[in-house]
């Protein structure tokens, strides 16, 4: 019996050990991967930003009992994943809010994944947690948050927003018995992840008031003030204001300082969505635009946007770390060994227990490249957007307000505005060299130019202008 069991175990071990390739195999796989990564990055300037292609091999292929050669799999990734759809690694991505994909973060991810530190709890991953906590502290300082603030590295702005709203809800004691009297204020320029978070946190039954915006797409703070007063007078419970520091649609920044005054005097939770705009605070000449942001109660920023990291990195900052932890702390009997550490554990600051060690993909490029490179890259994006804005105006396009950051909207003034501009966008997508997306402002079609990819430089902007010129002729 004993023998047959050990024999079985040994037989299994041989097979199981295939999960740990030896160094010769690792070297080969590395070499292929490295060659591919170089091919990918080097060809980016020539690659279209938008491609429509199927996924035939991905569709057909099923997971099998036996493995497949690495290069065969890499081929599928290259053709059907990375050369398909919107190329978010391309500097030609000027749609939505462009993402990043720093190569150095890729190295960080590999080191994080192979090392597999447990980054949720201080006790198990003290270095990993210290790294994340230092990143959070650095962003708290950037935002002007005091000692005693903390936050959480999340998968993105949406989960970061969920954490913020959960904290706001609990801190203001919004529960079943009073939720129908609770009031939330934001504008119609709020990102839709806020609506999701409102739903998930059970705040859908609260009253949601959309405060009108001015012609710069900024919240009309006088209306906000009046509405809060009226709601209070009517026995309601105004508890949360959500402001934009760089809206997705137009890049607009709400009057952050005035909203801070209002929230402070009326005792409301002040949340700022800086998912897109937040890292522009690194740039001295833009810093004033964010004045008042440090007086908020919670704040969301997306390092996978303004710090050019790969997708999967958001951050929430909360002025009162205790409030954040009260809303997210829990423990189980199997966790007793992890208790009693002074440093804050990420698992106490969000819904995740086990999580990707996101700190490394952020810490590594920041330290390796240094902040000045990030600052230069950010301010370059702002200037590129201004340049685009001037040029497109000179080409006879109607434009929105001067860009507050690096997003601008424009449309061709045709007799049938919406029809013409919709066709124009279709043409631009067919062309695909540069990718732009459209939006609706007051029900009208506008095209957006959002400059935030670290790979967007003057060359890409000139190409976009040329492409738009050609597309107008075509329509
Ligand atoms: C992108 C964005 C979000 C959502 O963040 P995700 O990282 O996509 O989940 C929220 N608010 C603003 C202003 C954004 O630009």
Short description:
The chain has 475 residues and is of the alpha/beta class. Helices cover 45% and strands 13% of the residues. Helix 2 runs parallel beside helix 4.
Features:
475 residues; alpha/beta; 13 strands; globular; seven-stranded mixed β-sheet; 16 helices; four-stranded antiparallel β-sheet; binds pyridoxal-5'-phosphate
What does this structure look like?
The protein is an alpha/beta fold and 475 residues long. It has 16 helices and 13 strands. The radius of gyration is 25 Å and the shape is globular. Bound molecules: pyridoxal-5'-phosphate.
The shape is: globular
Low-confidence stretches: none
The rounded Rg comes to 25 Å
Strand content: 5-15%
Main sheet, how many strands, which sense, barrel?
7 strands, mixed
| Broad structural category | alpha/beta
Q: Could you give the order of the helices and strands?
A: HHEHHEHHEHEHEHEHEEHEHHHEEHEEH
Distance between the termini: 80 Å
Q: Which molecules are bound besides the chains?
A: pyridoxal-5'-phosphate
- Biggest sheet strand order reads 3-9-8-7-6-4-5
- For the secondary structure, the number of strands is 13
* Total count of helical runs of at least 4 residues: 16
Q: What average pLDDT do the residues reach?
A: 96
Residues in helices, as a percent range: 40-55%
């Amino acid at each position: 019996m004993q023998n047959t069991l050990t024999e079985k175990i040994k037989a299994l071990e041989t097979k199981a050990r295939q999960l740990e390739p030896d160094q010769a195999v690792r070297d080969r796989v590395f070499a292929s991967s490295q060659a591919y990564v170089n091919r990918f990055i080097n060809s980016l300037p020539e690659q279209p930003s938008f491609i429509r292609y199927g996924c035939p091999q991905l569709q057909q292929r099923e997971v099998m009992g036996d493995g497949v050669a690495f290069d065969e799999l890499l081929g599928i990734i290259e053709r059907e994943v990375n050369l398909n759809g919107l190329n978010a690694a391309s500097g030609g991505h000027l749609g939505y809010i462009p993402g990043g994909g720093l190569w150095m973060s890729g190295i960080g991810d590999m080191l994080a994944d192979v090392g597999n530190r447990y980054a949720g709890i201080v006790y198990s991953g003290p270095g990993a947690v210290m790294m994340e906590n230092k990143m959070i502290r650095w962003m708290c300082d950037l935002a002007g948050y005091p000692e005693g603030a903390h936050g959480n590295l999340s998968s993105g702005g949406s989960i970061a927003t969920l954490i913020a709203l959960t904290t706001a809800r609990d801190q203001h004691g919004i529960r079943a018995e009073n939720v129908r009297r609770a009031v939330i204020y934001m504008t119609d320029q709020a990102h839709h992840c806020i609506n999701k978070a409102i739903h998930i946190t059970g705040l859908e039954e609260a009253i949601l008031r959309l405060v009108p915006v001015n012609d710069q797409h900024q919240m009309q703070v006088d209306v906000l003030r009046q509405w809060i007063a009226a709601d209070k007078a009517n026995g309601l419970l105004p508890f949360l204001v959500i402001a934009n520091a760089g809206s997705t649609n137009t890049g607009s920044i709400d009057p952050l300082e005035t909203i801070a005054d209002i929230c402070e005097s009326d005792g409301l939770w002040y949340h700022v969505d800086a998912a897109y705009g937040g890292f522009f605070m690194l740039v001295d000449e833009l810093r004033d635009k964010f004045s008042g942001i440090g007086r908020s109660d919670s704040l969301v920023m997306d390092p996978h946007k303004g710090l050019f990291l790969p997708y999967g990195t958001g951050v929430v900052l909360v002025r009162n770390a205790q409030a954040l932890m009260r809303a997210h702390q829990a423990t189980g009997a199997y966790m007793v060994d992890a208790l009693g550490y002074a440093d804050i554990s990420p698992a106490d600051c969000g819904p995740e227990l086990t999580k990707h060690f996101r700190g490394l993909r952020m810490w590594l490029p920041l330290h390796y490249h240094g902040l000045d490179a990030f600052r230069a890259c950010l301010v370059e994006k702002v200037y590129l957007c201004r340049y685009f804005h001037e040029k497109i105006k000179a080409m006879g396009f109607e434009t929105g307000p001067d860009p507050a950051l690096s997003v601008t909207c424009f449309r061709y003034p045709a007799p049938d505005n919406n029809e013409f501009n919709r066709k124009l966008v279709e043409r631009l997508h067919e062309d695909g060299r540069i990718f732009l997306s459209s939006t609706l402002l007051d029900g009208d079609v506008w095209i957006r130019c959002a400059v935030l990819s670290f790979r967007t430089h003057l060359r890409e902007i000139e190409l976009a202008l040329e492409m738009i010129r050609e597309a107008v002729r075509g329509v």
